[in-house]
Amino acid sequence: MGEKIVDNNQIVIVGAGLSGLTLAERFATVANKKVLIIEKRDRIGGNCYDFFDKHGVLVSKYGPHIFHTQEKRVYEYVKKFADWEKYEHQVSSFVKGKLVPIPVNIETINLLFGTKINNGEEMRRWLDERRVKGIKIPMNSEEVVLGKLGKKIYELMFRDYTKKQWGISPKELESEVLARIPIRYSFERGYSSNKYQIRPRGGFTKMMEKMIENPNIELRLNTDYYSFADNIPSGSKLFFTGPIDEFISYKSGKLYKLPYRSVKFVFKSFHKKYFQKVGVINYPSIKTKMSRSTEYKYLTGQKHDWTTISREYFSGKGEPLYPLKSFESKKKYEEIAKIVGNLKGIYFLGRLGKYKYINMDQAILEALNLFDELYYGDKKR
Question: Taking the model in full, what pTM does it have?
Answer without folding.
Answer: 0.93
